[in-house]
């Protein structure tokens, strides 16, 4: 990992390169040049990439989510907009969700979402000069793939860095909690986590654990989380 500053060029190259928050690929005149166009940082922070170096992003201490294509988010329906809805995803501007952006949706058969409904969606379009757009299906298979309305459960807010940690399959917290009691969870990269359990005390335990593991709340490691859990009535 390395620290980057706005305007600094980063060595992000891959056949299937995907850029996350904090990075921008400069435009080129031809498609051939576009593949090798330089990538620069648009904000200061720690430069990160996936194991195969296909995904790159800058991890900063930003409190506000900046949408990027293909990222999973949790949002709240705030109102109707034509044939779709307006959604608050914690960004500078509300996102739009079309009524047909669901598995099997047609003009006559669309989901019935109300103001206040929670949804788990993927960012399909994100541009600095346009409002972000969402979809509730896998773009390749057009199957729901876990996206859609989130019913019941509880939503908590965490740091953007914590949400990225929870989305890492190798992170210990959710598997550790899942070994103690049944749970369902959906993590939005916009710092929102939805959890559903059979008992209220289990939901409280999840919230408390996420709070103490969050880098903004102490950054507790696995060993200490196990000790912490042993003190809780679960």
Automatic annotation (TrEMBL):
<dbReference type="InterPro" id="IPR012340">
    <property type="entry name" value="NA-bd_OB-fold"/>
</dbReference>
<keyword id="KW-0694">RNA-binding</keyword>
<dbReference type="InterPro" id="IPR041054">
    <property type="entry name" value="Rrp40_N_euk"/>
</dbReference>
<feature type="domain" description="K Homology">
    <location>
        <begin position="153"/>
        <end position="200"/>
    </location>
</feature>
<keyword id="KW-0963">Cytoplasm</keyword>
<dbReference type="Pfam" id="PF15985">
    <property type="entry name" value="KH_6"/>
</dbReference>
<dbReference type="GO" id="GO:0071038">
    <property type="term" value="P:TRAMP-dependent tRNA surveillance pathway"/>
</dbReference>
<dbReference type="Pfam" id="PF18311">
    <property type="entry name" value="Rrp40_N"/>
</dbReference>
<dbReference type="InterPro" id="IPR026699">
    <property type="entry name" value="Exosome_RNA_bind1/RRP40/RRP4"/>
</dbReference>
<dbReference type="GO" id="GO:0000176">
    <property type="term" value="C:nuclear exosome (RNase complex)"/>
</dbReference>
<protein>
    <recommendedName>
        <fullName>Ribosomal RNA-processing protein 40</fullName>
    </recommendedName>
</protein>
<dbReference type="InterPro" id="IPR049469">
    <property type="entry name" value="RRP40_KH-I"/>
</dbReference>
<comment type="similarity">
    <text>Belongs to the RRP40 family.</text>
</comment>
<feature type="domain" description="Exosome complex exonuclease Rrp40 N-terminal">
    <location>
        <begin position="17"/>
        <end position="64"/>
    </location>
</feature>
<dbReference type="Pfam" id="PF21262">
    <property type="entry name" value="RRP40_S1"/>
</dbReference>
<dbReference type="InterPro" id="IPR037319">
    <property type="entry name" value="Rrp40_S1"/>
</dbReference>
<dbReference type="GO" id="GO:0071034">
    <property type="term" value="P:CUT catabolic process"/>
</dbReference>
<dbReference type="InterPro" id="IPR004088">
    <property type="entry name" value="KH_dom_type_1"/>
</dbReference>
<dbReference type="GO" id="GO:0005730">
    <property type="term" value="C:nucleolus"/>
</dbReference>
<keyword id="KW-0271">Exosome</keyword>
<dbReference type="InterPro" id="IPR036612">
    <property type="entry name" value="KH_dom_type_1_sf"/>
</dbReference>
<dbReference type="GO" id="GO:0071051">
    <property type="term" value="P:poly(A)-dependent snoRNA 3'-end processing"/>
</dbReference>
<keyword id="KW-0539">Nucleus</keyword>
<keyword id="KW-0698">rRNA processing</keyword>
<dbReference type="GO" id="GO:0000467">
    <property type="term" value="P:exonucleolytic trimming to generate mature 3'-end of 5.8S rRNA from tricistronic rRNA transcript (SSU-rRNA, 5.8S rRNA, LSU-rRNA)"/>
</dbReference>
<dbReference type="GO" id="GO:0000177">
    <property type="term" value="C:cytoplasmic exosome (RNase complex)"/>
</dbReference>
<dbReference type="GO" id="GO:0071035">
    <property type="term" value="P:nuclear polyadenylation-dependent rRNA catabolic process"/>
</dbReference>
<dbReference type="GO" id="GO:0003723">
    <property type="term" value="F:RNA binding"/>
</dbReference>
<dbReference type="GO" id="GO:0034475">
    <property type="term" value="P:U4 snRNA 3'-end processing"/>
</dbReference>
């Amino acid at each position: 990992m390395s620290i980057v500053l706005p305007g600094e060029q980063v060595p992000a190259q891959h056949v299937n390169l995907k850029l996350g928050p904090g990075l921008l690929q400069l435009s080129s005149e031809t498609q051939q040049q576009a593949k090798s166009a330089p990538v620069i940082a648009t904000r200061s922070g720690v430069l990160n990439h996936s194991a195969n170096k296909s995904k790159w992003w800058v991890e900063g201490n930003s409190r506000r989510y900046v949408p990027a294509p293909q990222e999973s988010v949790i949002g709240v329906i705030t109102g109707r907009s034509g044939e779709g809805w307006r959604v608050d995803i914690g960004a500078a501007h509300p996102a739009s969700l079309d009524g047909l952006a669901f598995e099997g949706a047609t003009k006559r058969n669309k989901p019935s979402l109300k103001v206040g409904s929670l949804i788990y969606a993927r960012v399909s379009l994100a541009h600095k000069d346009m409002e972000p757009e969402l979809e509730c299906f896998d773009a390749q298979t057009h199957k729901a793939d876990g996206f859609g309305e989130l019913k019941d459960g509880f939503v908590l807010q965490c740091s953007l860095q914590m949400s990225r940690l929870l989305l890492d399959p190798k992170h210990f917290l959710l598997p550790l909690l899942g070994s103690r009691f049944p749970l369902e969870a959906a993590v939005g990269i916009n710092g929102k986590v939805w959890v559903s359990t059979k008992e209220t005390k289990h939901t409280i335990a999840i919230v408390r654990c996420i709070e103490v593991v969050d880098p903004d709340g102490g950054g507790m490691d696995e060993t200490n989380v196990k000790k912490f859990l042993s003190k809780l009535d679960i």
